[in-house]
Design goal:
The chain is mostly helical. It has one domain. 71% of the residues lie in helices and 0% in strands. It is built from eleven helices and no strands. Helix 1 packs across helix 2, helix 3 packs antiparallel against helix 4 and helix 9 packs antiparallel against helix 10. The longest helix has 20 residues. The radius of gyration is 17 Å and the shape is globular.
Length: 184
């Protein structure tokens, strides 16, 4: 399926932002993940309040649902975790969780969907799980988030985020610290 972008529509603007961030972050998502990310961003633009979510609770509730209700709930959890980790990383501190919390939970939600018998998009959900941190890096790049060094280091150590690593390098983090992960 070829993507045709015309005019200054909301969809074409989001595609432009995603493609620019994809290029800047040096991640290659592929067309299916680009499409998913764009339409997820459009869908959540209409939802004004997602910060009140307790993701672990929503994940557990979704896991106990069946059929379409289960798929919808787990997809929402994965999507919210992607938004929290990439667009709203400050929620990590507010919710008093580690920088990798939303990444781990979101990856798990998508992975569970990829293994679901009722899921129609198993391959897509598997790719979302597998490339979750790449998607997060693209969202962080779009927003140009500038973390405190300790937060960036924790995110990098927990998730191997290329965005966090580059931010540490840009801010002259100690080479000893950066090389410590490589030698382990």
């Amino acid at each position: 399926m070829k993507t045709i972008i015309t005019g200054p529509s909301l969809t074409s603007q989001w595609y432009k932002f995603v493609k620019e961030a994809e290029h800047a972050s040096k991640h290659n998502l592929g067309e299916d993940l680009q499409n998913y990310l764009v339409f997820m961003l459009i869908r959540f633009m209409k939802k004004s309040e997602i910060t009140g979510s307790v993701m672990a609770t929503e994940y557990l509730r979704g896991s106990f649902e069946v059929g379409h209700a289960r798929s919808a709930k787990l997809q929402e959890v994965g999507d919210k975790c992607l938004l929290f980790s990439g667009f709203f990383p400050e929620q990590t501190e507010k919710k008093r969780v580690s920088p990798g919390y939303f990444v781990s939970l979101g990856k798990s939600a998508y992975f569970e969907l990829s293994n679901s018998r009722s899921s129609k998009n198993k391959e897509l959900y598997f790719e979302l799980s597998k490339k979750f941190i790449n998607l997060t890096d693209i969202l962080l790049t779009m927003r140009k988030v500038n973390f405190e060094p300790l937060f960036a280091f924790s995110l990098w150590m927990e998730t191997n985020s290329r965005y966090a690593y580059n931010l540490l390098r840009k801010n002259d983090a100690s080479p000893t610290i950066l090389n410590s992960k490589i030698s382990h």
